[in-house]
């Protein structure tokens, strides 16, 4: 049996169904992200695992033990909150030691462990500071150390980086991942930021309106989204309506142009049927370099410089779509208003649902 | 512009005079116990009057017990409301304001009516009346205590701190005494000083329930027949109140320093 199992868990608040039939098995040492828009039930799932909410139906099983009704202070599950939730009356060291003091561990062991954790989160010099004397990033490191101090069976993080600015968010998330690998601890991480989920997780659970939409590795979620919701929520995506011409060959018609798709789902469609197709911007390129299965004529509407990547907005008939190319100072960019030839492989053309 | 500031100063001065002149007059009067010259005789008499000090001691004890009982009742209640029943806050706030609306005289007659006979014959013994007095004061000072504790709990995120402590293994006792109460210390201290000041000066309830055992009625009685000593007492209680006020300010300022930006 898996390390943590959520067995068909649901949660209602009055008439509102916050989480519905949530079923997930997590292996020991896995880093799982719950990803979805605000209000989709991510926090509620986490709070049920932590014991702050009782599932309306279903069971939660940790290491073979049914913990559904175990009170939160008996679960030994660490939790990190978006608002840090450090105890304002205690120093950094006292915050980290809190869980061990509650467990009445001997004072010398507590001191050793606090030193160890302060080193782990690089805050040795802040031991005697109070939370209000620290920056947001530092406070969240303390919160992480405090949760790890009790050697939790499971670590839960609820949007821990949302309150921090972009640069710290990126460094701290790789630190969290490094610490998780170093300790081999199982993590459930809640976020609404798809980039964060893609960069940090072993597996991602994409949620929508209380239900699981898709579970998979970042690679699977990004490259093979199973629903249009996942496709559009994760990463930048072009979508357009197209007409099926020949399902067996994968031939489609989009705004007068012919397009080949390798999506196996297309075989089930009938000629003349309208489908929603999607193409990632980075799978489209200018036709000069290398010709692929599809060749299209499009007008350049806009060019946005994003640093390493240049995003070009193109118009094909009535359809607007984006193309991403790597920024290369030695290559000339097309000019706005000009017509260009763009190309993409048939594997890049996905049919949704 | 200049004219406006001049007028401002005029009004401030007038206000200060209005406030301090009677005090100065009282102080001056308290020094005139001897006909021929200014003296501290009234203060000497006051200090030698053991009844006054006994009453003061009694009222301080009653005040401390009021604070203790009030905190014991209100801290867990307000904590619970913040944690599980935030929708009750407007109602509780309304009830806590009732002592402002209902005159103390009404409160004291109600107390006596209910507790002077069976099944609660509290007015027959000293211990009973002490308890009744404390209970009355807890109600009377409820608005101050509730507001202080409520503000203290609003300043920290009670729900999240509680959950953080729970996830670290803490039970209710630990959470209340090691996490919640330490963060309310300054709010509670401020309220405590205020309550002490109120109890020391309170007359209506004290005079009906315990009479001259309490400080308020004693000041009143001294004022009835010993004018100089009474003035000395007034000056003394003013000083006492001001010291308490200064302490509140000091505590409040320290609270800002230790809690810092949120
Ligand atoms: N204690 C609660 N009482 C009533 N409704 C709640 C409660 N907690 C969450 N909800 C509702 O449940 C839904 C899911 O909330 P939540 O799990 O916080 O979403 P997320 O974390 O994904 O933003 C939301 O519609 C929210 O309003
Ligand atoms: Mg949330």
Write out key terms for the chains shown:
A: 353 residues; alpha+beta; six-stranded mixed sheet; five-stranded antiparallel sheet; 8 helices; B: 262 residues; mainly alpha; MetI-like fold; 12 helices; 82% helix; globular; binds adenosine-5'-diphosphate; binds magnesium ion
CATH superfamily of chain B: MetI-like
Residues in helix, % of chain A:
10-25%
Low-confidence stretches of chain A: none
Residues in β-strands, percent of chain B: under 5%
The CATH first-level class of chain B comes to: Mainly Alpha
Mean of all residue-level pLDDT scores of chain B: 87
How is the main sheet of chain B built? none
Share of residues in strands of chain A: 25-35%
Query: How many domain regions of chain B?
Result: 1
CATH topology of chain B: MetI-like fold
Q: What class would the helix/strand composition of chain B place it in?
A: mainly alpha
Which two protein chains have the largest interface (Cβ within 8 Å of the partner's Cβ), and how many residues from each? A-B, 30 and 24 residues
Could you explain how this protein is built, in words?
- The complex is a heterodimer of chains A (353) and B (262).
- Chain A is 24% helix and 34% strand.
- Chain A is α+β, with helices and mostly antiparallel strands.
- Chain A has a six-stranded mixed beta sheet with strand order 6-7-8-3-9-10, with helices on both faces.
- In chain A, helix 2 (92-102) packs across helix 3 (107-120), helix 2 packs parallel to helix 4 and helix 3 packs across helix 4 (136-149).
- The longest helix of chain A is centred in the middle third of the chain and has 18 residues, at 166-183.
- The radius of gyration of chain A is 25 Å and the shape is elongated.
- The two termini of chain A are 32 Å apart.
- The mean pLDDT of chain B is 87.
- Chain B has twelve helices and no strands.
- The longest helix of chain B has 35 residues, at 50-84.
- Chain B has one domain (40-259): MetI-like (MetI-like fold).
- With 262 residues, chain B is mostly helical.
- Chain B has helices at 2-30, 41-48, 50-84, 89-101, 104-115, 126-140, 142-155, 158-167, 172-201, 204-209, 215-225, 227-259.
- The chains are: A alpha+beta (353), B mainly alpha (262).
- Chain A binds chain B through residues 50-52, 71-79, 81, 83, 85-89, 98-99, 102-103, 130, 132-133, 143, 146-147, 150, and chain B through 156-157, 160-161, 163-171, 174, 178-179, 182-183, 185, 258-262.
- The structure holds adenosine-5'-diphosphate and magnesium ion (MG).
- The site of magnesium ion (MG) has 2 residues of chain A, from helix 1.
- Magnesium ion is lined by residues 42-43 of chain A.
């Amino acid at each position: 049996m898996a390390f943590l199992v959520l067995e068909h868990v649901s949660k209602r608040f009055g008439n509102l169904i916050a989480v519905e039939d949530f079923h997930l098995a997590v292996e020991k040492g896995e880093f799982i992200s719950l990803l979805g828009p605000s209000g989709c039930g991510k926090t509620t799932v986490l709070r049920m695992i932590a014991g702050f909410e009782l599932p309306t139906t279903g069971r939660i099983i940790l290491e073979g033990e049914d913990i559904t009704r175990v009170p939160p202070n008996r679960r030994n599950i660490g939790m990190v909150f978006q608002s840090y939730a450090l105890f304002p009356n205690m120093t950094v060291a006292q915050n980290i030691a809190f869980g061990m003091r509650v467990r009445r561990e001997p004072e010398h062991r507590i001191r050793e462990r606090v030193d160890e954790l302060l080193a782990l989160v690089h805050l040795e010099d802040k031991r005697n500071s109070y939370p209000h004397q620290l920056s947001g990033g530092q406070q969240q490191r303390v919160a992480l150390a405090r949760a790890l101090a009790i050697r939790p069976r499971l670590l839960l993080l609820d949007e821990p980086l949302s309150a921090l600015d972009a640069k710290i968010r990126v460094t701290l998330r790789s630190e969290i991942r490094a610490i998780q690998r170093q300790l081999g601890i199982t993590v459930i991480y809640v976020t609404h930021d798809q980039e964060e989920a893609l960069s940090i997780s072993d597996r991602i659970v994409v949620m929508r309106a209380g239900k699981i939409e898709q579970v998979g590795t970042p690679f699977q979620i990004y490259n093979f989204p199973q629903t249009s919701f996942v496709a559009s929520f994760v990463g930048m995506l072009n979508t357009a309506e197209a007409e099926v011409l020949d399902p067996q060959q994968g031939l489609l018609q989009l705004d007068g142009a012919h397009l080949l798709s390798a999506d196996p789902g297309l075989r089930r469609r009938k000629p003349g049927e309208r489908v929603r197709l999607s193409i990632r911007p980075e799978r489209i390129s200018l036709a000069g370099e290398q010709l692929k299965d599809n060749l299209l004529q499009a007008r350049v509407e806009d060019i946005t410089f994003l640093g390493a990547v240049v995003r070009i907005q193109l118009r094909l008939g009535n359809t607007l779509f984006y193309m991403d190319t790597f920024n290369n100072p030695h290559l000339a960019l097309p000019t706005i208003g000009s017509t260009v030839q763009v190309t993409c492989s048939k594997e890049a053309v996905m049919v949704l649902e | 512009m200049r004219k406006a500031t001049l007028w401002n100063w005029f009004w401030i001065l007038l206000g200060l005079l209005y406030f301090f002149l009677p005090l100065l007059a009282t102080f001056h009067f308290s020094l005139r116990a001897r006909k021929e010259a200014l003296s501290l005789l009234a203060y000497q008499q006051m200090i030698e009057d053991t009844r006054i000090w006994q009453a003061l001691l009694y009222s301080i004890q009653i005040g401390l017990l009021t604070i203790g009982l009030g905190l014991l009742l209100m801290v867990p209640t307000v904590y619970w409301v913040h944690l599980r029943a935030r929708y009750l806050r407007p109602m509780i706030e309304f009830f806590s304001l009732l002592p402002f609306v209902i005159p103390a005289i009404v409160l004291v007659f109600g107390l006596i009516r209910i507790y002077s006979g069976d099944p609660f014959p509290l007015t027959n013994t000293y211990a009973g009346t002490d308890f009744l007095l404390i209970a009355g004061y807890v109600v009377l000072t409820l608005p101050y205590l509730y507001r202080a504790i409520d503000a203290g709990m609003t300043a920290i995120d009670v729900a999240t701190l509680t959950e953080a402590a729970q996830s670290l293994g803490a039970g209710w006792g630990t959470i209340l005494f090691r996490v919640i109460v330490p963060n309310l210390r300054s709010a509670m201290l401020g309220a405590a000083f205020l309550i002490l000041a109120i109890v020391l000066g309170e007359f209506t309830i004290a005079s009906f329930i315990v009479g001259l055992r309490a400080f308020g009625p004693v000041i009143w009685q001294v004022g009835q027949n010993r004018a100089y000593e009474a003035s000395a007492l007034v000056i003394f209680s003013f000083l006492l109140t001001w010291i308490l006020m200064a302490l509140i300010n000091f505590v409040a300022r320290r609270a800002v320093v230790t809690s810092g930006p949120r």
